[in-house]
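Entry type: protein chain
Record version: 2
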Amino acid sequence: MTYALNRSRTLAATLRTFPPSGIVSASDSTGIDVGGVESSLYYILPTSRINRRYVSPAGQMNLSEYGPQQVFVRDARPIADRITFHSHGFMLRRHASAVTDFRDSEQIDRVYVPEMARLLQELTGADKVIPFAWMTRSSAPANDEDQPPANDVHVDQTPSFAECMARRALAWAGESDLAFRHFFVVNLWRAYSGAPQDWPLGLCDGTSVASDEGVTYPILSVDKLPALDDIPEVLPDDPSIAQSPEISAFQFRPEHRWYYFSDMGVDEIVLFKNYDSTRTGPWRVPHAGFRDPTCAPTPPRLSIEVRILALFL
């Protein structure tokens, strides 16, 4: 096994709150009746014309328009053994970490990232795994290191940028010419604050997402934020400039089926696909944090996520 690390943290979007809802139940795609909660997720609006974020040393500018959508989020805890990468694009697994302090960046780099690389390789049988980013989040951020839960429905990379990032990751690892059959981009998410979570992670069943969905949302690093009247509607296509990071934002569709795993323990990990180069089955999982309106007052959710490229030769 080999891996390389290029840790990056993007600037956080504004944390939004919304009114509480109650517990409900519905039949899962497996045919089993499961409980869950109703809450709001933020989808990009069909009227959002210019979709991008500018990031500068002085701050950021988000040009996209989002709106809240009430959804039912099924509790996948009772059916966790039926949910896999192949069936839904995500899964829950147990893993006890040797990390003693998830606030210690040195321990994360030295201990935790290699642990996650080994876990993903064991679970998928990948021939090579390359971690490329990690970040921490808090539902009550106390400093610039923590991002709030991302409550906009998104996938961390567009298909185009995932393919670009795979080539970059291989270059970081010194294996630019490595031939491979296909690859995954996977996020491994842990709530290290333990149960319960006031802001769980919502995961959309990858089989309920159409292949033509997704709005490209570039994140552009600039020296100075542009004036509003000086922003082009279409970005120029300049092949001499390296591709900027792009996420996929999503518009609401009633077909989307949402899940979460209630009361995640410190020794549990959710793994989900951001991209599968085969583009078959549940090849990506839109996701978003949401406020659980049924959660009693509890300390803030603290979570860590590691993003890893898994290659099959």
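Comment: The radius of gyration is 19 Å.
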